């Protein structure tokens, strides 16, 4: 019986590294060899794969025919590439919603990518890059649906585009609330709460202290239900700004 070149000595895990057409041929040959009367152990030795693999192919063929021998497209299902488990994500989101980072023992007054990274490193023992942090913030809809908040750039110097978003925890629990401010170069600052915010002044105060300067918040996609808070965006002695 002809064998796919390089099969012998491949090892149990090597079959998965074959191109899909070669893997299908290997499976067909192995099943045919068993069908001719050879034992699964003998066939596994001939083709350089595990006996378990041969048994799986034979059972699949017997129950579903030749179509079961065609390899499925490689790749992980959605969510399998995530570094943080669902439980770890819940833990991180709960920590964000529990209060500002200084209350969690971190050296920031509002959450930033670096602050979130430090939180994850402390709580989960993992060091994530800023781009990976953004993927989780998008996944949790903290940056708004489809990441609209993170794409706002070009604000005048000294101003930040601010909006009110509704993050959704991984566990599907109650919707949260977030004040998210983005600078012209993509800098990100935010606070998260379990209940609606009753004012913006505290957010501005924390931003001012963390940035070391006064900041002017320009509302964007601001919810009409909370329009009464917009007067706090400009700061003392400045005209109130209108949402864009």
Report how far the terminal alpha carbons are from each other.
Answer: 73 Å
Radius of gyration: 28 Å
Alpha plus pi helix count: 7
By DSSP, the count of extended strands is 4
- Total domain count: 2
Q: What is the SS-derived class? A: alpha+beta
Order of helices and strands: HHHHHHEEEHE
Oligomeric state of the chains in view: single chain
What is the approximate shape? elongated
Strand order within the widest beta sheet: 3-2-1-4
| Residue windows where pLDDT falls under 50 for at least 5 positions | 1-13, 75-80, 237-244
Determine the strand fraction and express it as a percent band. Answer: 5-15%
Topology (elements, then pairings):
Layout: H1 20-35, H2 40-47, H3 51-64, H4 86-97, H5 113-124, H6 130-139, E1 159-165, E2 177-182, E3 188-193, H7 201-211, E4 216-219
Parallel strand pairs: 1-4
Antiparallel strand pairs: 1-2, 2-3
Helix pairs in contact: 1-2, 1-3, 2-3, 4-5
Short characterization:
Helix content is 34%, strand content 9%. The protein is of the alpha+beta class.
Note down, in words, how this protein is organized.
InterPro entries: Homeodomain-like_sf (IPR009057), InsJ-like_HTH (IPR055247). Pfam families: HTH_28 (PF13518). This is Mobile element protein. It comes from Actinokineospora spheciospongiae. The chain is an alpha+beta fold and 244 residues long. The chain folds into 2 domains: 53 residues; 147 residues, no CATH class. Helices cover 34% and strands 9% of the residues. It has 7 helices and 4 strands. Strands 3-2-1-4 form a 4-stranded mixed sheet, with helices on one face. Strand 2 and strand 3 form a beta hairpin. Helix 1 runs antiparallel to helix 2 and helix 4 packs across helix 5.
